[in-house]
Structures are given as structure tokens and as C-alpha cells.
Specification:
The chain is of the alpha/beta class. The chain is built from 6 helices and 25 strands.
């Protein structure tokens, strides 16, 4: 059982910066995110996208911003549970919640800070009958650790950046890679398309366009993928893993069932401290809703800062909180 002061749901930029602000108050944080790495959309969707509205940076790449935030919070030693979705939340006493993830990890904390951005990102799944029977048994919707696929036979499906980039990355890891795509043209970066074409030309990967997976076979563990190809007809590929990399779609997910006030998939909050109306539960960043809301990283940083001040008072109602510029006297009176 993991114990912490503030459980942050969402390890995007707002969740990460909240760790820093909480650390100044000597509050320990643990972050949970359905994605396999910290950074949220910045890491998963557009790590090379330039951002122009971060104070002190005329421009900064999204991935670079995440790296800097991780360095900034390193002294506070936050805990991370990545690749797991926040599933069940229960109140176990007057000032303590217990969160259980979809993989059974349990974390307890007096304060919950929902910083889930647009919600938890769920994979776009291909319409293949029975695919759920092979999830985590040969079917993977994202790559958590490339070494998992060392010397494996892989079939990757998709035509966007994720499918192309992982085909390139895993070309020297897997024993065999077949990339299939429904069209002849790709949606990914031109440089990535060129690299994939070169890999196919040099026979380092198999490339089949105008093709899609239509069936899966195996006795409890995936063994074969049935592919329908315009050129080759219906073929069966012997594989160890099937990776349909069609991207991720944001959804509020199980949070919608936690009894919070929600408007159009966003959590209503009080702008005084971004509390939800449920004691000890806050919502910050793109996932919250209030009059005049701007969905900017900068605004999320402000919301996280104000939220931890309120969280400190909630956890330690009798402690004196003294704020001095960028340093804070925590509950034991020792300055950072």
C-alpha cells in the first residue's frame, strides 16, 4: 500500500509542477497516469511541438519542458505509478481516500488532485472480434518498454507518427517486424516515412499497404494475426505481438463516476482553491471547468499553486503556513 500526502491523477505538466509547489510545503506527492511515461499529451502526442507561452522561454519544445519539470521536482522525490488508470476511489475514513488502479495498485492519501488534462487517454482499438481476449497476452496498444519486444516477431498496424516511430525504433530490437497500413500514404512526419521506406527497401521490415488486420488466433496467448491485403489477399502472420498503434483518445473515464459535479466532461470547481465541493478533492488544469476558464499550461500552473495552499490547510488545519517569496515554511517550520 502506497501512502502519500497528495495523490495526483495525471502526470502531465500541471501535475508535475504541482509536485514542486507541494514540495515547498513539505507535502509528499504520488502521481498516477494511464500513459507509460510522465508528461501527458506533451510526451505522448507532440514532444517536438514548440510552446511559446511559458514564462522565461521565448520557445520551448514540449518534450524539453517535460524534462525540465522532471528535473525541477527531482529533489522532492515524488512517486509514480505509470501505465495504470485510476479506477476506483473510496473514502476509508474522515480524511483519507484509497485509490485502486485498473492493475490493482492501491494508494492512500488525504488529498486527491485530479490533473488529468482532457481525461485519461484510451487507445483507439481496431474493430477485431475478440481482441480484448488477447490484451496483455500479445496485443499491446502502446510501447511501455522496447526491451519487452526483444527478439520477438511483431505486427504493427497504423499510419501515423506512433506506428512509424516505433517501427523505426524496434527495427533493431525485434527479430521480425511487419508494418501494415490501410492506405498507401502515411500521416506521419516525412522524415519518419522516408526511414520506414528505407527499412522496407533494405528488407529490415516487411511493409504491406492497403491492408488491415481482421482476425486473431491463439489459445489464451496470441499466436497469429489474419491480415486482409488488396495485393496478397487473406494471409496469416505468425507473431508474438500485435501492436495496433492508432493513437489515443481522451475520455473522462472512471472519474465520471466519483460523484463530482461535471459539465461537458469537465469537473466544476471553486476558483478560490479549485476544490470540487467534495472535501479533499481538487481538479486543476484542462480537466476543470469554471467561468472564464482558459485551457493553457500557464493557467494550470497557477491552479496547482493555489490548490496546494488549500490542501496544506486541509491536511494540517492547526498548522501555521508562512509564505515567503519562493520559499515556504512547512508544517515543521523548517524552510526549504
Amino acid at each position: 500500500m502506497i501512502q502519500t500526502d497528495i495523490l495526483i491523477i495525471g502526470a502531465g505538466p500541471v501535475g508535475l509542477f504541482t509536485v514542486f509547489e507541494a514540495g515547498l510545503l513539505k507535502l509528499k506527492c504520488h502521481l498516477v497516469d494511464a500513459l507509460p511515461q510522465a508528461g501527458g499529451q506533451l510526451s505522448e502526442i507532440y514532444p517536438k511541438k514548440p510552446i511559446y507561452d511559458i514564462p522565461g522561454y521565448p520557445t520551448v519544445l514540449a518534450g524539453e519542458l517535460v524534462d525540465n519539470l522532471m528535473k525541477q521536482i527531482e529533489p522532492f522525490k515524488p512517486g509514480f505509478t505509470l501505465g495504470e488508470r485510476a479506477e476506483k476511489l473510496e473514502k476509508i475514513d474522515e480524511k483519507k481516500y484509497r485509490l485502486t488502479t485498473n492493475r490493482g495498485t492501491q494508494i492512500e492519501a488525504p488529498v486527491i488532485a485530479i490533473a488529468g488534462g482532457l481525461g485519461c487517454f484510451e487507445p483507439r482499438k481496431p474493430p477485431i472480434e475478440g481482441i480484448e481476449n488477447f490484451e496483455d497476452k500479445g496485443v499491446d496498444y502502446m510501447v511501455r518498454d522496447p526491451e519487452t519486444f526483444r527478439d520477438k516477431r511483431l505486427l504493427i498496424a497504423g499510419g501515423g507518427d506512433s506506428a512509424l516511430d516505433w517501427t523505426i525504433e524496434l527495427a533493431d530490437v525485434a527479430s521480425e517486424i511487419t508494418l501494415i497500413h490501410r492506405r498507401t500514404s502515411f500521416r506521419g512526419a516525412l522524415d519518419s516515412v522516408d526511414k520506414v521506406m528505407e527499412l522496407a527497401k533494405s528488407k529490415k521490415i516487411n511493409l504491406i499497404t492497403e491492408a488491415q488486420a481482421i482476425g486473431l488466433n491463439g489459445n489464451g496467448v496470441l499466436k497469429e494475426v489474419v491480415v486482409k491485403s488488396k495485393e496478397l489477399g487473406e494471409i496469416t502472420k505468425q507473431v508474438d505481438n500485435f501492436l495496433p498503434l492508432f493513437g489515443l483518445s481522451p475520455k473522462l473515464g472512471p472519474i465520471a463516476d466519483w460523484g463530482l459535479s461535471i459539465t461537458k466532461s469537465a469537473i466544476n470547481v471553486d476558483t478560490k482553491d479549485y476544490s470540487t465541493g467534495v472535501p479533499g478533492i481538487y481538479a486543476i488544469g484542462d480537466i476543470n471547468n469554471y467561468e472564464g476558464k482558459l485551457k493553457l499550461i500557464l493557467c494550470g500552473f497557477h491552479e496547482g499553486t493555489m490548490m496546494v495552499q488549500s490542501a496544506f490547510k486541509y491536511i494540517y488545519p492547526d498548522a501555521k503556513l508562512s509564505f515567503k517569496y519562493t520559499t515556504v515554511l512547512g508544517k515543521d517550520g523548517i524552510g526549504m
